[in-house]
Specification:
By secondary structure, the protein is mainly α. It has a single domain, classed as Growth Hormone, Chain: A. Helix content is about 80%, strand content about 0%. The protein has 16 helices and no strands. It is globular, with a radius of gyration of 20 Å.
């Protein structure tokens, strides 16, 4: 295991996802400056989600066939550059353009970084990938807190400072680019197995589970600051609430992966997703310390299945890892982003609180679907 490679990839994942996730807090202020509706706000967030997710399989396909290590440093710098100007946009169409361009950098970074972590992890790929994923989840947790601090002290112009960590991290990745050299692929080694049939039924249900979870997760990330802002909560406190939700979600992702090795993938997916609506409902109905406690537990519950669903897909498709990664991390998350856009329209029609309660229920529905999953054959006792 090459520890420096994994540490650099993890830190860069934190920077990229943290830069991207300043958006929920920035959107809360852009609502007033650009006179946006809830539908427009959530459509903007969904556009970033879709543009950074749906085209990931395409970048992964390129990375499998061409030397694209520069995608890592280039993607980091590109993401930082365009997120640094998101607070300066003069109009809604310009905001959408900036977010689409940001998504290109994010989509370029993730596949090649994941491949690099896999090669650097040796025979401990599960640990290496969970560490890499935790870096991204930590970035998502830190982003709103940093954004709230920047917005409080500098206003929307404070987003320009986001370019600093992006450029520094991109430079570090370029300097240590030799750490990410990967072994040459052995062609033909698995060609007979590559013709094994794909279990489309279970794979489709798994993608539906990930889509519903992503829809609920992405929607809550956008709506939690908006709902608290509407209730008169300060921007700083709203940012801290989102941090608690996402930070403990990152811890939950590592815990879920650990437990799935011992009690089974399906069991962790079902238990975590079915229990989430109860924990989140309690957090929303209570106030004071207990509200914060259950918000943390809800974050753990929601993201405990994050890495588990990826591993489940890879075990379903042991000889089609590109298909597994593309569907679970790319297309399904993009589809969840489209669902967030629908939630924005529902918020305009029926109110923000109604839309939030619907988002809370979606992961629970995903957990019920997970009951119909059977484990991959090679894991049956």
């Amino acid at each position: 295991m090459r520890k420096l490679s994994i540490a650099l990839a993890c830190l860069s994942h934190t920077i990229v996802d943290g830069s991207q996730n300043i958006l929920p807090v920035v959107l809360a202020l852009l609502v007033d400056r650009l006179h946006l509706s809830y539908g427009q706000v959530v459509m903007a967030a969904a556009l970033l989600n879709v543009s950074s997710s749906v085209i990931q399989p395409g970048f992964g396909w390129i990375s499998d066939r061409c030397p694209t290590r520069w995608f890592m440093s280039g993607g980091i710098a590109w993401t930082g550059l365009f997120m640094s100007v998101v607070g300066l946009v003069p109009s809604y169409p310009m905001l959408l353009l900036v977010l689409v361009l940001t998504g290109l950098g994010t989509a370029a970074f993730h596949p090649i970084a994941s491949i690099a972590v896999t090669h650097a992890s040796g025979d401990r790929r599960g640990f290496g990938m969970s560490f890499f994923s935790a870096g991204g989840n930590l970035g998502f947790a830190i982003g709103p807190v940093v954004a709230a601090w920047l917005m409080t002290w500098l206003g929307l112009q404070g987003t320009v400072l986001v370019i600093i960590p992006g450029l520094l991290m991109a430079a570090a990745m370029y300097v240590w680019r030799g750490e990410f050299a990967s072994p040459a692929p052995v062609h033909g080694a698995h060609e007979p197995q590559a013709r094994a049939p794909i279990p489309w039924g279970r794979l489709s249900r798994l993608c539906a589970i990930i889509t519903l979870r992503s829809w609920g997760y992405s929607g809550l990330v956008v709506f939690i600051p908006l709902l608290l802002h509407e209730q008169g909560v300060s921007l700083s406190l709203a940012g801290r609430a989102l941090f608690v939700f996402l930070f403990f979600g990152a811890l939950g992702g590592m815990l879920g992966g650990h437990l799935s090795d011992r009690i089974g993938r399906q069991q962790v997916i079902v238990a975590s997703l079915v229990s989430f609506p109860f924990f989140m409902a309690i957090a929303m109905l209570l106030s004071g310390p207990f509200s914060w406690l259950f918000l943390a537990i809800a974050g753990i519950s929601l993201l405990a299945s994050f890495s588990v669903t990826v591993v489940f897909a890879q075990e379903l498709l042991p000889h089609h890892l590109g298909v597994a990664s593309g569907l679970t991390l790319g297309l399904s998350f993009g589809a969840g982003g489209v669902g967030v856009g629908l939630s924005g329209l529902l918020a305009d029609l029926f109110g923000l609180q109604t839309s939030v309660w619907l988002l809370v229920l979606l992961p629970g529905i995903a957990g019920l679907i997970a009951l119909t999953l059977s484990p991959p054959r090679d894991r049956r006792a």
